[in-house]
Amino acid sequence: MSTNEYTIALAGNPNTGKSTLFNVLTGLRQHTGNWPGKTVVHAEGFFTYNNNRYKMIDLPGTYSLYSNSADEEVARDFIIFEKPDVTIVVLDATALERNLNLALQVLEMTSSVIVCVNLMDEAKKKGIRIDTEKLAATLGVPVVPISARNKEGIDTLLKTIDSMVRGKIKTNPIAVRYSPEIEQCIEKLIPRVKEVIGDAYPARWVALRLLDGDMSLLQALQQQPLPSVKEVSIYACHDTAKSV
Prior knowledge:
This protein is of the alpha/beta class and 244 residues long.
Protein backbone atom coordinates (compact mmCIF):
# COMPACT_ATOMS: atom_id res chain seq x y z
CA MET A 1 0.00 0.00 0.00
CA SER A 2 1.17 3.55 -0.68
CA THR A 3 2.32 5.70 2.20
CA ASN A 4 1.26 9.33 2.50
CA GLU A 5 3.06 11.87 4.67
CA TYR A 6 1.16 14.32 6.83
CA THR A 7 2.30 17.14 9.10
CA ILE A 8 1.10 17.51 12.68
CA ALA A 9 1.64 20.59 14.82
CA LEU A 10 1.68 20.07 18.57
CA ALA A 11 0.59 23.17 20.50
CA GLY A 12 -0.08 23.85 24.17
CA ASN A 13 0.71 25.85 27.27
CA PRO A 14 3.97 25.12 29.09
CA ASN A 15 3.80 22.18 31.51
CA THR A 16 0.83 20.45 29.90
CA GLY A 17 2.85 17.33 29.02
CA LYS A 18 3.05 18.35 25.37
CA SER A 19 6.67 17.29 24.97
CA THR A 20 5.97 14.03 26.79
CA LEU A 21 3.32 13.24 24.18
CA PHE A 22 5.78 14.23 21.45
CA ASN A 23 8.34 11.76 22.84
CA VAL A 24 5.76 8.98 23.22
CA LEU A 25 4.69 9.29 19.58
CA THR A 26 8.08 9.86 17.95
CA GLY A 27 10.43 7.94 20.24
CA LEU A 28 14.04 8.31 19.05
CA ARG A 29 12.94 9.36 15.57
CA GLN A 30 13.38 13.05 16.26
CA HIS A 31 15.89 15.86 16.07
CA THR A 32 16.19 19.40 17.36
CA GLY A 33 17.70 22.65 16.17
CA ASN A 34 16.64 26.30 15.98
CA TRP A 35 13.90 27.87 13.93
CA PRO A 36 15.37 29.92 11.04
CA GLY A 37 16.44 33.33 12.31
CA LYS A 38 15.30 32.55 15.86
CA THR A 39 16.89 31.34 19.07
CA VAL A 40 13.75 29.28 19.69
CA VAL A 41 14.27 25.50 19.72
CA HIS A 42 12.78 23.56 16.81
CA ALA A 43 11.83 19.94 17.61
CA GLU A 44 10.74 17.62 14.81
CA GLY A 45 9.96 13.91 14.91
CA PHE A 46 8.39 11.15 12.85
CA PHE A 47 6.09 8.18 13.33
CA THR A 48 3.98 5.89 11.18
CA TYR A 49 0.45 4.66 11.74
CA ASN A 50 -1.91 2.70 9.52
CA ASN A 51 0.34 3.00 6.45
CA ASN A 52 0.75 6.76 6.83
CA ARG A 53 3.90 8.61 7.83
CA TYR A 54 3.64 11.65 10.06
CA LYS A 55 6.03 14.52 10.64
CA MET A 56 5.32 16.05 14.03
CA ILE A 57 6.45 19.55 14.99
CA ASP A 58 6.58 20.28 18.72
CA LEU A 59 5.77 23.99 18.80
CA PRO A 60 7.10 26.14 21.65
CA GLY A 61 4.90 26.09 24.73
CA THR A 62 2.91 29.33 24.81
CA TYR A 63 -0.04 30.83 26.65
CA SER A 64 -1.28 32.68 23.56
CA LEU A 65 -0.58 33.25 19.87
CA TYR A 66 -0.58 37.05 19.98
CA SER A 67 3.10 37.54 18.99
CA ASN A 68 4.14 38.91 22.37
CA SER A 69 7.34 36.85 22.18
CA ALA A 70 9.50 34.94 19.71
CA ASP A 71 7.94 31.67 20.93
CA GLU A 72 4.44 32.93 20.18
CA GLU A 73 5.43 34.21 16.74
CA VAL A 74 7.00 30.87 15.83
CA ALA A 75 3.92 28.91 16.92
CA ARG A 76 1.54 31.34 15.21
CA ASP A 77 3.47 31.45 11.94
CA PHE A 78 3.76 27.68 11.67
CA ILE A 79 0.04 27.10 12.14
CA ILE A 80 -1.09 29.88 9.83
CA PHE A 81 1.55 29.71 7.08
CA GLU A 82 2.64 26.06 7.04
CA LYS A 83 -0.96 24.84 7.37
CA PRO A 84 -0.34 21.51 9.10
CA ASP A 85 -2.75 18.72 8.25
CA VAL A 86 -3.65 18.42 11.94
CA THR A 87 -2.99 20.71 14.89
CA ILE A 88 -3.17 18.96 18.25
CA VAL A 89 -3.76 21.30 21.18
CA VAL A 90 -2.67 19.71 24.44
CA LEU A 91 -4.58 20.84 27.55
CA ASP A 92 -3.92 20.18 31.23
CA ALA A 93 -6.97 18.38 32.60
CA THR A 94 -6.39 19.99 36.00
CA ALA A 95 -6.45 23.54 34.60
CA LEU A 96 -8.86 23.58 31.66
CA GLU A 97 -10.10 27.10 32.36
CA ARG A 98 -6.57 28.43 31.81
CA ASN A 99 -5.61 26.18 28.90
CA LEU A 100 -8.77 26.65 26.81
CA ASN A 101 -7.72 30.19 25.95
CA LEU A 102 -5.00 28.87 23.63
CA ALA A 103 -7.31 26.23 22.18
CA LEU A 104 -9.87 28.88 21.23
CA GLN A 105 -7.16 30.95 19.54
CA VAL A 106 -6.03 27.96 17.48
CA LEU A 107 -9.65 27.25 16.48
CA GLU A 108 -9.84 30.75 15.01
CA MET A 109 -6.86 29.89 12.78
CA THR A 110 -7.64 26.39 11.54
CA SER A 111 -10.46 23.85 11.61
CA SER A 112 -8.18 20.79 11.45
CA VAL A 113 -7.82 20.56 15.22
CA ILE A 114 -7.83 17.78 17.79
CA VAL A 115 -8.00 18.84 21.42
CA CYS A 116 -6.03 16.45 23.61
CA VAL A 117 -6.85 16.59 27.33
CA ASN A 118 -3.72 15.32 29.06
CA LEU A 119 -2.98 14.51 32.71
CA MET A 120 -6.31 12.77 33.18
CA ASP A 121 -4.69 10.66 35.91
CA GLU A 122 -3.86 13.81 37.88
CA ALA A 123 -7.37 15.15 37.40
CA LYS A 124 -8.81 11.89 38.76
CA LYS A 125 -6.63 12.17 41.86
CA LYS A 126 -8.00 15.67 42.45
CA GLY A 127 -11.59 14.56 41.97
CA ILE A 128 -11.96 16.46 38.70
CA ARG A 129 -14.35 14.93 36.18
CA ILE A 130 -14.31 16.11 32.57
CA ASP A 131 -17.13 15.40 30.15
CA THR A 132 -15.00 15.19 27.00
CA GLU A 133 -18.01 14.43 24.79
CA LYS A 134 -19.75 17.61 25.90
CA LEU A 135 -16.52 19.56 25.49
CA ALA A 136 -16.16 18.20 21.94
CA ALA A 137 -19.75 19.20 21.13
CA THR A 138 -19.10 22.71 22.44
CA LEU A 139 -15.76 23.22 20.68
CA GLY A 140 -16.85 21.52 17.46
CA VAL A 141 -13.72 19.38 17.17
CA PRO A 142 -12.64 15.97 18.53
CA VAL A 143 -11.56 15.87 22.17
CA VAL A 144 -9.40 12.94 23.29
CA PRO A 145 -8.58 12.30 26.98
CA ILE A 146 -5.09 10.88 27.59
CA SER A 147 -2.34 10.38 30.13
CA ALA A 148 0.80 10.70 28.02
CA ARG A 149 3.28 9.56 30.66
CA ASN A 150 1.22 6.42 31.30
CA LYS A 151 0.58 5.97 27.57
CA GLU A 152 -3.17 5.87 28.18
CA GLY A 153 -5.47 7.01 25.38
CA ILE A 154 -2.65 7.08 22.81
CA ASP A 155 -4.27 4.52 20.53
CA THR A 156 -7.54 6.49 20.53
CA LEU A 157 -5.57 9.63 19.67
CA LEU A 158 -3.83 7.87 16.78
CA LYS A 159 -7.14 6.58 15.44
CA THR A 160 -8.59 10.10 15.64
CA ILE A 161 -5.60 11.55 13.76
CA ASP A 162 -5.97 8.83 11.12
CA SER A 163 -9.68 9.54 10.69
CA MET A 164 -9.05 13.27 10.37
CA VAL A 165 -6.37 13.04 7.67
CA ARG A 166 -8.55 10.56 5.75
CA GLY A 167 -11.43 13.03 5.76
CA LYS A 168 -13.67 10.91 7.96
CA ILE A 169 -14.05 13.66 10.59
CA LYS A 170 -15.78 16.93 9.78
CA THR A 171 -15.19 19.71 12.26
CA ASN A 172 -17.27 22.79 13.03
CA PRO A 173 -15.12 24.94 15.34
CA ILE A 174 -16.84 27.25 17.76
CA ALA A 175 -16.77 30.88 16.62
CA VAL A 176 -15.81 33.17 19.48
CA ARG A 177 -18.05 36.22 19.49
CA TYR A 178 -16.73 39.52 20.73
CA SER A 179 -18.48 42.74 21.72
CA PRO A 180 -20.91 44.26 19.19
CA GLU A 181 -18.41 47.07 18.52
CA ILE A 182 -15.59 44.65 17.70
CA GLU A 183 -17.86 42.45 15.58
CA GLN A 184 -18.89 45.50 13.53
CA CYS A 185 -15.24 46.36 12.94
CA ILE A 186 -14.50 42.78 11.90
CA GLU A 187 -17.35 42.81 9.39
CA LYS A 188 -16.02 46.03 7.86
CA LEU A 189 -12.51 44.66 7.59
CA ILE A 190 -13.18 41.17 6.22
CA PRO A 191 -14.03 42.28 2.63
CA ARG A 192 -10.89 44.45 2.50
CA VAL A 193 -8.74 41.61 3.83
CA LYS A 194 -10.17 39.17 1.27
CA GLU A 195 -9.33 41.62 -1.53
CA VAL A 196 -5.69 41.32 -0.54
CA ILE A 197 -5.19 37.71 0.57
CA GLY A 198 -8.16 35.95 -0.99
CA ASP A 199 -8.83 32.61 0.68
CA ALA A 200 -5.16 31.93 1.50
CA TYR A 201 -5.69 32.64 5.20
CA PRO A 202 -8.74 32.96 7.47
CA ALA A 203 -9.95 36.50 6.87
CA ARG A 204 -11.73 36.83 10.21
CA TRP A 205 -8.57 35.90 12.10
CA VAL A 206 -6.44 38.30 10.04
CA ALA A 207 -8.98 41.07 10.68
CA LEU A 208 -8.77 40.42 14.42
CA ARG A 209 -4.98 40.63 14.34
CA LEU A 210 -5.14 43.89 12.39
CA LEU A 211 -7.53 45.34 14.95
CA ASP A 212 -5.06 44.22 17.59
CA GLY A 213 -2.31 46.19 15.84
CA ASP A 214 -0.19 43.09 15.22
CA MET A 215 2.61 44.57 13.10
CA SER A 216 4.63 41.35 13.19
CA LEU A 217 1.84 39.59 11.30
CA LEU A 218 1.91 42.27 8.60
CA GLN A 219 5.64 41.76 8.22
CA ALA A 220 5.19 37.98 8.09
CA LEU A 221 2.49 38.28 5.43
CA GLN A 222 4.85 40.39 3.32
CA GLN A 223 7.26 37.44 3.20
CA GLN A 224 4.69 34.96 1.90
CA PRO A 225 4.85 33.99 -1.80
CA LEU A 226 1.48 35.44 -2.75
CA PRO A 227 1.50 37.77 -5.77
CA SER A 228 -1.58 39.58 -4.45
CA VAL A 229 0.02 40.40 -1.12
CA LYS A 230 1.64 43.75 -1.77
CA GLU A 231 3.03 46.09 0.84
CA VAL A 232 0.68 48.93 -0.03
CA SER A 233 -2.35 46.61 0.16
CA ILE A 234 -1.38 44.98 3.45
CA TYR A 235 -0.66 48.26 5.16
CA ALA A 236 -3.81 49.77 3.69
CA CYS A 237 -5.71 47.04 5.55
CA HIS A 238 -3.87 48.07 8.70
CA ASP A 239 -4.84 51.71 8.14
CA THR A 240 -8.46 50.61 7.61
CA ALA A 241 -8.30 48.70 10.90
CA LYS A 242 -7.12 51.82 12.71
CA SER A 243 -9.88 53.91 11.16
CA VAL A 244 -12.65 51.55 12.19
